């Protein structure tokens, strides 16, 4: 996510940037009043000289005594020594590791406050591109605990041979040992103490890079061990652990080209989404992209169906289709659906998933970061395009869409800064931003997903200009 306080400088300039740790600067910065939240969730204040200070775990309106732990040319970074007043939306963190673990760094802010902050970040980043959000920005939300169905846990052995298992501290490579996790699905969280004991029993735990946990349908738990070097004795120990815990276990073995080796019977990993008329089962493999929050994923599907209302006269092109999460869920709604994905393996799984569910979807492989004439031809054959790109967005695709005859573009984004940049390309091509939603895929973090619908004016009434309340960019704004 593009964040306040992050300078977009080339790598060479970044190396020269003045940055001094706490030991090189005065530790005290006095009393500050927090004005607002930065995009990354830190408090923003100004010192007596007017210099911006980013304060960890501080909320707007709070007065705090801070200590500077990093000093830069244009801003400082600080932490709270003493909080002199509390914001009304401050709450006690639900996780015992909240102040140390870097995973969920907004636990001191109420859930309602977190969601409003994320909504505002989305609106603000669009505004920086001269784009006004619609008046009504939907918030797609669910449970804030036990929602995470996949996770990667770091493993490290220190100089004394002690095993550490957990997530990294914020802005650090240091692991924070954990025995519980507020946001992991309960069946995954319950494994944490037993995984630690298992690691401590290994012959060579230092050859374990990390552990991947995955929960799929029928409460199937899969453990993938990143095994940097083969240790036969430890493989037997992992086999025994998998049998004892009744879970599926595989090794991702090797350093450069890791090979997946199953130590248990290879499971059939399936996740189910609700389609138009019936459930749709999606088979997957470890490493395939899968949204961590199943409930919010379904909310995205349902919202797409509501906004697009695809019918038997509509054709839908799903780009960055993965294993068919959206294209197969919407397959019975539209007359024609074509799904394009960059990974050959996932294209094959998408095709298998379509056959297994009896759905008619064309699945194709293409490099969507460098689209060619084949993609241009596909765009020309469809009236609606759905995008679900990785964090870097889909700039090249959106430039093509801007020059196309496509009537609607639905964009699912995991980075609001990329969405805002790509939205500017679409609006320059005559689209208007007609619908917008913030999806709280990762409660207690600053990360947000979003869903935006862009339509040609012929398919929707053009929103009013900025000075009339909402709508298309104001005259003179960046498109």
UniProtKB/TrEMBL annotation:
Q: Per its UniProt record, what InterPro entries does this chain match?
A: 23S_rRNA_MeTrfase_RlmD, MeTrfase_TrmA_AS, NA-bd_OB-fold, SAM-dependent_MTases_sf, TRAM_dom, U5_MeTrfase_fam
One function term, GO molecular function aspect: RNA binding
Q: Which GO terms describe its biological process?
A: rRNA base methylation
Q: What keyword terms does UniProt attach to this protein?
A: 4Fe-4S, Iron, Iron-sulfur, Metal-binding, Methyltransferase, rRNA processing, S-adenosyl-L-methionine, Transferase
Task: Identify the domain of life.
Answer: Bacteria
Stretches with biased composition (Basic residues): 1-11
Pfam families xref list: TRAM (PF01938), tRNA_U5-meth_tr (PF05958)
Enzyme group, top EC level? transferase
| Chain positions covered by the region annotation Disordered | 1-27, 457-479
Q: What is its EC number?
A: 2.1.1.190
Q: Which reaction does it catalyse?
A: uridine(1939) in 23S rRNA + S-adenosyl-L-methionine = 5-methyluridine(1939) in 23S rRNA + S-adenosyl-L-homocysteine + H(+)
Annotated residues for binding of [4Fe-4S] cluster? 95, 101, 104, 181
Q: Which residues bind S-adenosyl-L-methionine?
A: 291, 320, 325, 341, 367, 388
Active-site residues are: 414, 414 (nucleophile)
Indicate the segments forming the TRAM domain, all copies.
Answer: 23-82
Among HAMAP family, the record links this protein to: 23SrRNA_methyltr_RlmD
Family note = Belongs to the class I-like SAM-binding methyltransferase superfamily. RNA M5U methyltransferase family. RlmD subfamily.
Purpose of the protein: Catalyzes the formation of 5-methyl-uridine at position 1939 (m5U1939) in 23S rRNA.
Q: What is this protein called?
A: 23S rRNA (uracil(1939)-C(5))-methyltransferase RlmD
Q: What is the lineage of its organism?
A: Bacteria, Pseudomonadati, Pseudomonadota, Gammaproteobacteria, Oceanospirillales
């Amino acid at each position: 996510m593009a964040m306040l306080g992050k300078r977009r400088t080339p790598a060479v300039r970044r190396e020269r940037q003045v940055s001094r740790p706490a030991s090189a600067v005065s530790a005290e910065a006095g009393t500050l009043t927090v004005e607002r939240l930065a995009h990354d969730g830190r408090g923003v204040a100004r010192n007596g000289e007017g210099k911006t200070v980013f304060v960890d775990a501080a909320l707007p309106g709070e007065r705090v005594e801070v200590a500077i732990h990093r000093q830069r040319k244009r801003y400082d970074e600080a932490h709270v020594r003493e909080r002199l007043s509390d914001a009304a939306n401050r709450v006690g963190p639900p996780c015992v590791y909240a102040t140390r673990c870097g995973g969920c760094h907004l636990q001191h802010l109420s859930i309602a406050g977190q969601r409003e902050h994320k909504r505002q970040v989305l609106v603000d980043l669009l505004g920086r591109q001269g784009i006004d959000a619609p008046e009504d920005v939907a918030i797609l939300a669910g449970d804030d605990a036990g929602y995470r169905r996949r996770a990667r846990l770091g493993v490290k052995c220190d100089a004394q041979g002690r095993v550490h298992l957990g997530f990294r501290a914020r802005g650090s490579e240091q692991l924070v040992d954990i025995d519980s996790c507020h946001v992991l699905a309960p069946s995954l969280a319950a494994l944490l103490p037993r995984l630690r004991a298992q690691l401590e029993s290994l012959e060579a735990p230092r050859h374990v890079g990390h552990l991947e946990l995955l929960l799929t349908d029928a409460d199937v738990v899969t453990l993938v061990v990143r095994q940097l070097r083969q240790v036969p004795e430890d493989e037997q120990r992992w086999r025994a652990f998998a049998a004892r815990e009744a879970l599926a276990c595989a090794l991702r073995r090797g350093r450069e080209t890791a090979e997946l080796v199953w130590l248990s019977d290879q499971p059939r990993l399936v996740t189910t989404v609700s389609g138009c008329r019936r459930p749709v089962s999606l088979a997957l493999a470890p490493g395939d992209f899968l949204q961590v929050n199943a409930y919010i994923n379904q909310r995205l599907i349902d919202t797409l169906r509501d906004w697009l209302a695809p019918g038997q006269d509509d054709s839908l092109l799903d780009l960055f289709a993965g294993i068919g999460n959206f294209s197969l869920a919407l397959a019975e709604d539209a007359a024609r659906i074509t799904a394009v994905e960059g990974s050959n393996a996932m294209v094959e799984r998408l095709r298998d998933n379509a056959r297994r569910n009896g759905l008619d979807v064309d699945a194709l492989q293409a490099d969507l970061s460098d689209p060619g004439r084949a993609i241009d031809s596909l765009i020309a054959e469809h009236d609606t395009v759905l995008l679900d790109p990785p964090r870097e967005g889909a700039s090249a695709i959106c430039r093509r869409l801007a020059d196309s005859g496509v009537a609607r573009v639905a964009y699912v984004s995991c980075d609001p800064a990329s969405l805002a940049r790509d939205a500017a390309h679409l609006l320059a091509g005559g689209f208007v931003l007609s619908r917008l939603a913030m999806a709280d895929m990762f409660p207690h973090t600053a990360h947000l997903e979003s869903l935006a619908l862009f339509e040609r004016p012929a398919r929707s009434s053009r929103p009013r200009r900025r000075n009339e309340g909402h709508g298309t960019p104001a005259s003179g704004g960046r498109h």
